[in-house]
Amino acid sequence: MATVADIKSALENVKYPGFAKSIIEFGFVKDVQVDGSACSILLDITSSAKEVEEQLRKEISAVLSDLVENVTINIKKPQEPKQHSNSVSGKNIAPHIKNFVMVSSGKGGVGKSTTTVNLAVAAAMQGKKVGILDADIYGPNIPRMMGLQGKEVEVIGNKAKPFNAYGVDVMSMGSLMQEGQALIWRGAMIMKAIEQLLRDILWEELDILFIDMPPGTGDAQLTLAQSVPVTCGVNVTTPQHVALDDSRRSLDMFSKLHIPIGGIIENMSGFICPKCGEESDIFGMGTCEALAEQYNTQVLGNLPIEPAIREGGDAGKPVVYFQPESESAKRYMKATQKLIEYINEVSDKVENASIQPTTPPGVSACSTAGAAKSSNHSHGGGCGCH
Ligand SMILES: Nc1ncnc2c1ncn2[C@@H]1O[C@H](COP(=O)(O)OP(=O)(O)OP(=O)(O)O)[C@@H](O)[C@H]1O
């Protein structure tokens, strides 16, 4: 029968992967116990790599196979360093903002800006210090939706002060560009614009900055992910299968950029008749559950087509603030609560501020001229009850 000394002596033949010394010489073997034909070993190693653990398990089992029948190997190792969206660039150009939520959609017109506004206002109503950065350079609708259209930006030094509406700090490319001016955005310009919106705006200390991205997966998403540690992404989609295919691309992008997925908002999920209050299925309902499961995330909420949502958007009066008793407002509040819970779970205990900022002197974004596109589509229709 093998003894502890026999086991230790066999383990002297197991080299620590990548080194000439054995795990015994390194002092990584912390405990060996033998019980008849079984033995258990406790290792405490310095690498978090999966490959190192796998190799050690294989080699230990091999050297002990003649001595004992059953081997239990327990390995203590450091936690794998967490990948952030900015892990490669190491940049964090807005360290005083605790959490960044990237609101994305696979395609345009699905209600991404509407969702951003209502989630942000709901988060402020739930006591958070919140901002919205409208980075949708192709169609910056946030000023209209927050009742800020046409307001002049206040410039202090060479930085711009965000507006405040309904308890939320807001800055939009739309407020910095001259309305109606067309501009073709190319890669480098998009990157510069996104960086300036983070660096040259006097953002206060915020708990959450919601960022309304241009639709799709392009340079803007990449730049943002490399510029700050994005806490999580929220995907907005409508329930039709064609929209879900686009959403997959958007969700794949989150994964590639190491952005945790906070959840999916299924927008225009059914229709609530303003006259009878009845909910009817128009584009399909509940189709995002399977998508959420596939990406190991959650559906934050199913938002119906409700005229009050569109009217609130057009009038600059977010439904969650002005009609808190409406079904949509309640669902936005619930979705926000779920999102905040998720943020609390994933956000590191390490303060964002402890990641060293890189702040080369920037040029004020206020000088940037461009286009403001307004794309408010109305979703009317009826449930057929009248
Ligand atoms: N659940 C809803 N019920 C009723 N109207 C809605 C709903 N969601 C969005 N809308 C309306 O649909 C239109 C498009 O919404 P929004 O601008 O938020 O979409 P988007 O995805 O941000 O579009 P873009 O790609 O142009 O930025 C707006 O008029 C908005 O008020």
Automatic annotation (TrEMBL):
> Which Gene Ontology terms describe the biological processes this protein takes part in?
iron-sulfur cluster assembly
- Example of a GO MF term: ATP binding
Which keywords fit this entry according to its UniProt record? Answer: ATP-binding, Hydrolase, Iron, Iron-sulfur, Metal-binding, Nucleotide-binding
- Keyword Flavoprotein listed? The answer is no
Task: State the SUPFAM superfamilies in the record.
Answer: Fe-S cluster assembly (FSCA) domain-like, P-loop containing nucleoside triphosphate hydrolases
Q: Where is the MIP18 family-like domain?
A: 5-74
Ranges for the region named Disordered are: 366-386
CDD domains per record = Mrp_NBP35
Note the InterPro entries from the entry. Answer: FSCA_dom_sf, MIP18-like, Mrp/NBP35_ATP-bd, NUBPL-like, P-loop_NTPase, YlxH/NBP35
Which Pfam families does the record match to this protein? Answer: FeS_assembly_P (PF01883), ParA (PF10609)
- Which residues of the sequence carry a binding annotation for ATP? G106, K107, G108, G109, V110, G111, K112, S113
KW RNA-binding (keyword) present:
no
Summarize the subunit comment. Answer: Homodimer.
Task performed by this protein: Binds and transfers iron-sulfur (Fe-S) clusters to target apoproteins. Can hydrolyze ATP.
Family membership, please give it.
Belongs to the Mrp/NBP35 ATP-binding proteins family.
Under what name is this protein listed?
Iron-sulfur cluster carrier protein
